[in-house]
Design brief:
The structure is a single chain. This protein is mainly α and about 210 residues long. It has two domains: about 55 residues, Arc Repressor Mutant, subunit A, CATH 1.10.10.60; about 140 residues. The protein is built from ten helices and no strands. Helix 5 packs antiparallel against helix 10. The radius of gyration is 21 Å and the shape is elongated. The protein starts with 6 loop residues before the first helix and ends in an 18-residue tail after the last helix.
Length: about 210
Amino acid sequence: MTLRRTQAERSATTRARILDCTAESLLESGYAATTISAIQLRSGLARGTVQHHFPTRSALLIQATTHVVDARLAQFRSEASRWPDDQDRLQALVDLAWRDLNSPAFFTALELWVAARTDADLRDALVAEERRVFAEMRRIYAEVLGPDYADDPRTETLVEFTIDLLSGLSMTAMLTGVLGEREAALRRWKRALAVLTGRLPAAELLEGTPLRVP
């Protein structure tokens, strides 16, 4: 026997569909093109249905910030849970950060960041959500690094530098599309982290030999 869904369940499904379509539109078409009409067409729902859940474009995009953050965190947790235990922890940190900061979820969030510069309501919502996402990611980064780095006073700064550097690299690569430059920058930063934590001598900072840290 098929159980009938409750009205609340049907409403939640419709709401999730609208937000999924909003995230897709932000990624594929950009912030300016993500309108109520565009989401109506993309979702196949009636305009009245979309506006029943989100009366205005502003309300839709503000709620989309939470939806995008939730999706990004779910993907990030999944990536972290599958990381091989035998990989060097600092290299794992860089690879995990890069997968997040070069993912569709990040580029969707980036559309909202840019729009929030001139939209006070969206900015307030996004600031709160970004605090949440960064707090959770820092916790997961700490798990990836493990106890060897837990008490190292350099760790927090190096994690912050990694996120900032790779965020900039991702945004630059988004425009240039030059894969070789991205890979070279990742290799250089992995080597720099090994030097900064004393796992490689400073003379090894320059590339030329494979990166094998103890």
